Amino acid sequence: MQAVVARHPGLVLRPHMKTAKSVDVAALAAPGFGPITVSTIAEARYFAEAGWRDQIYAVGVTPQKLDQLAAIGGDIKLITDDVEAARAIADHPGGLRALVEIDVGEGRGGVTPESDELFTIATALGQRLAGVLAHAGHSYRGRDNPTMAATAEAERAGVVRAADRLREAGHAVPIVSMGSSPTALHAAHLDGVTELRAGVYMFGDLFQAQIGTHTLEDIALTVLTCVTGRKPARNAVLVDAGALALSKDRSTEAAPHDYGFGLTLDRQGRDTLGGAIVARTHQEHGEVTGPSPLPDLAIGARLRIAPNHTCLTAAAHPHYWVVDGSDAIIGQWARVNFW
Amino acid sequence: MQAVVARHPGLVLRPHMKTAKSVDVAALAAPGFGPITVSTIAEARYFAEAGWRDQIYAVGVTPQKLDQLAAIGGDIKLITDDVEAARAIADHPGGLRALVEIDVGEGRGGVTPESDELFTIATALGQRLAGVLAHAGHSYRGRDNPTMAATAEAERAGVVRAADRLREAGHAVPIVSMGSSPTALHAAHLDGVTELRAGVYMFGDLFQAQIGTHTLEDIALTVLTCVTGRKPARNAVLVDAGALALSKDRSTEAAPHDYGFGLTLDRQGRDTLGGAIVARTHQEHGEVTGPSPLPDLAIGARLRIAPNHTCLTAAAHPHYWVVDGSDAIIGQWARVNFW
Fold first, then answer.
1. Cα(A195)–Cα(A190) distance, rounded to whole angstroms?
2. Identity of the residue in B84, B243, B338 whose CB atom sits nearest the CB atom of A298
3. Which fold has domain B2-202?
4. What range(s) does the D-serine dehydratase-like domain occupy (chains A, B) (predicted)?
5. Topology classification of domain B216-332
6. Å from B13 to nearest chain A CA?
7. Each residue's pLDDT tens digit, B115-137
């Protein structure tokens, strides 16, 4: 992602730490305490205390959160698509600034680039306006490169159009922020954008591998598990990674290849089990089965599960064990969970 | 659940703490440090340190976990359906005992009551055999009282049959354990069973309400959230409880009423929003919509979400805020997460 950004003069990478939630990962993704994006107040505080002062808290803010956010210090920029929240930000003594959230086609948060609300909110923010921000979450619905490129261009053009309209009306719009891992990688150009937010690229997952963000081999996060039961009559083993350890995310259900609750790899993280997947989960049980006969596995044999959706799987765990090319542990990395 | 058990002389309640994972809840569910069931080694250690010494760790054990479990002390009984694991238990110097897991129709873990493996495993355990245990997880597939009662009877008859066969062969089988919240409540009788394990009944959820475990009004756990965006054009609001705060569990997808990712209640926990549900989730966003027009809600307005599957939703949070009949906080209860 750093290489993508380096190809665009003037563009800044503001990686989204919602996936990794780790200062150890931030040291790689945003070295030198560069700008970052966060998704919770807990992340904002954690990263600010560690030295990352330039943040965007990229979930629509509410008035009752402003005191907490202002108390963190640093330069935490908020986002809003609501005039009431904009007024509360402008009136807050903490000096907090905010970006207007732009809907570029996902239909989640944001106002559209051509809307009148764009002006109402910007005017309510007044001197606290820091820019505009878009997230093309609907890129996750794309399945081929031309569709992804079109979504990326819709995101770019939408957020730049919103910035242009505000500037024509006399507002200063220093930040024009877009980003998701897929659109960042599929955009033909990024003219007018000042910064890219992307997060899932740091670890990758089975879903992102299917929409062209990276290859299967690039998936950096797996769940280590062990065999707790052997069921050869149904070509299955039970493992101690279930719904809590993997999450119930079924992202790949709608992808070309449905991996159930995750792809089963060997202890070294190699795809040597013939495409076996976690077909069922219970709270602490996963059932691994596959199209080919499973190898003989002893009770306690260790396997790894590659996740459907790495953000949710990572959130189930208190920290990361870092392994080298095989499976020797070479470190433990921190995480900030909860809110 | 205590009343159900009290109707059966000699029957003991061994509540499953995997849902609540809280000493404060255990003090109500297993008062006087009564027997409990746990699902992780972290739970086993946490509850043993707090005084609950009589435990069943009810997930198939593996040899590499025995040292950790033995080091906890207390009386932690294991389960297994594998002769290799049974031999490791019998050979372990820690004196750990185990129950043989019986498959009474779910087709997850366990050996069937009529199998030869039942004897092989019991013989391998030798003096370490503590009993037999069944879990009719397939009760969750039932949708009416006669089906639930039949599943409960299959669970009871299966585990008692396994105990009888082992006793006929000369084994002592002190514990005959069955249980899930639905089968415990739907069983016509429990002859031959010595203890009931059930856990989700402590909090309840939208799925259990639909299979007759309790009523909607009995759901004791909700996620407090606030409105982060207003989208009247699509009769929706965005809230700050998303996939991480609610879990991605979609249990009610296959139930008579599909609640999406949860039922939206007002701040006092009352069903006054006309059946509005969380229809979509992203990591930190939920989108609430419903069949009736939503009331006017300010930015920051507080709502509560009743969960599809309380075990998974509770696991997303570091502790519980205890509220009285309205929404005044009267305490904080602990939880033990992770493994």
1. 9
2. B84
3. TIM Barrel (3.20.20)
4. 220-324
5. Lyase, Ornithine Decarboxylase; Chain A, domain 1 (2.40.37)
6. 21
7. 999 999 999 999 999 999 999 88
